[in-house]
Amino acid sequence: MTESSETQHLVGVLTKAEAAYQELRKRILSGSLAPGATINQERLAADLGLSITPLREALRRLEAEDLVTLSAHKIVRVVPLSWQELHELFVTRERLDPLAAELAATEATDQEAQAIADLAAQQRGTDPRARLTAHRRFHLAIYAASHNSVLAGILGQLWDRTDRYRIIVLRDRDLDHGTGAEHRQIAEAIRSRQATLADSLMRHHVEQALRSVERIAKVEAGS
To answer: Which of 53, 124, 207, 218 would you call most buried, defined as having the most Cβ atoms within 10 angstroms of its Cβ?
Structure first.
């Protein structure tokens, strides 16, 4: 194989690995691959229409993100939900999300502030995954409007890791109604440039989300 063909082969493998990574990550975060599920690597490769090499590259990335574990027997296991992990994620977000909202109130352009308000005002449907998408867009808009790329990057990663837990919360319609009201209050604080209020409202919003996950989890565990 010539150097040129080797390069083309490598690019092809990396492209397939990236596609496999994105697809598997989406399935895990959406719950399509259930927490704790086990899958044979060869069966998974066949399902994705891939060879083992790019699949293993994708799985190594997911393992580094603590989303899967790999065994010596070619078994892939989706990492189970852990309430300890959930607490750690929310404790971190309780500090960082308010900072993003505070910065957005001072750094966002008028167009960005209005876009955040528009996202908060959107009607929510009945599908939990569609509501999760709307919820995500609102928060990511605030992260971007903070104009702090390091903070936005960290919060984006934290958001991804909490997606598997957040779908539990969004099955509760009453909670979703409360979340919409909180979003509108946060958006108005950002648009009116009230940084301290935006910080306080966001802190309360994240704390309420954690309490709600715990409440719903206890109900489901007892049913």
So the answer is: 124
Q: Are residues 50 and 96 in the same domain?
A: no
Residue ending a domain, choose from 22, 57, 78: 78
Tell me the whole-structure pTM to 2 decimals: 0.76
Instruction: Give the residue from 143, 154, 158 showing the smallest Cα distance to 210.
Output: 158
pLDDT for 48-64, tens place per residue? 888 898 999 999 999 99
Burial class (CB in 10 A: 0-12, 13-18, 19+), 186: buried
**Domain stop point among 78, 99, 130:** 78
